[in-house]
Specification:
The chain contains 5 helices and 5 strands; from the N terminus they run βαβαβαααββ. It is α/β, with parallel strands linked by helices and about 120 residues long. The radius of gyration is 12 Å and the shape is globular.
C-alpha cells in the first residue's frame, strides 16, 4: 500500500495540493491520502477527485513518527519534523518506509511525501 501524506498551509489551494502530489509521486499512484486530523476537510476535495480514502492522523500518532526532514516551525507547532512524512508513515502502518521525502509544491504552500507499508 502506498500512502501520500500531506502537510500544508491554511493558504494552500487545491492546485497546491495536486502539484505537491504530482511532484512527489513520480508516476506512482497512491492507494490513500493522509494528513493531520484537523486538515482533512481541505484535503477531502482532492481525495474525492481521485477516488481515494483519506486518513486523518491524530496528533499523538504524528509526533510518534521519526521523519528524516525537519521544519523548525512544524516541529514547534506539531511536534514532528514533517507532517507530510509523519502522516504518510502513520497511515501506511507499522514497518512503513518512505518512498519519497517531502516535496514542496511550486508555490511552497503544500508538501507531499509517499510511504509504503503493508496495511491494506
Amino acid at each position: 500500500m502506498i500512502v501520500a501524506g500531506f502537510g500544508f498551509s491554511n493558504r494552500a489551494t487545491a492546485d497546491s495540493l495536486r502539484d505537491a502530489l504530482d511532484r512527489a509521486s513520480q508516476g506512482m499512484r497512491p492507494d490513500a491520502l493522509a494528513t493531520a486530523e484537523d486538515k482533512t476537510p481541505t484535503l477531502g476535495e482532492l481525495a474525492a477527485e481521485l477516488g481515494l480514502p483519506l486518513h486523518g492522523i491524530a496528533a499523538d500518532r504524528l509526533c510518534a513518527q521519526h521523519t528524516p526532514t525537519h521544519s523548525a516551525r512544524v516541529l514547534t507547532e506539531r511536534e514532528t519534523g514533517s507532517v507530510a512524512e509523519a502522516a504518510a508513515l502513520a497511515a501506511a502502518g507499522p514497518g512503513a518506509r518512505l518512498l519519497t521525502r517531502r516535496i514542496h509544491s511550486t508555490d511552497r504552500m503544500a508538501t507531499c511525501a509517499l510511504a509504503q507499508g503493508k496495511t491494506p
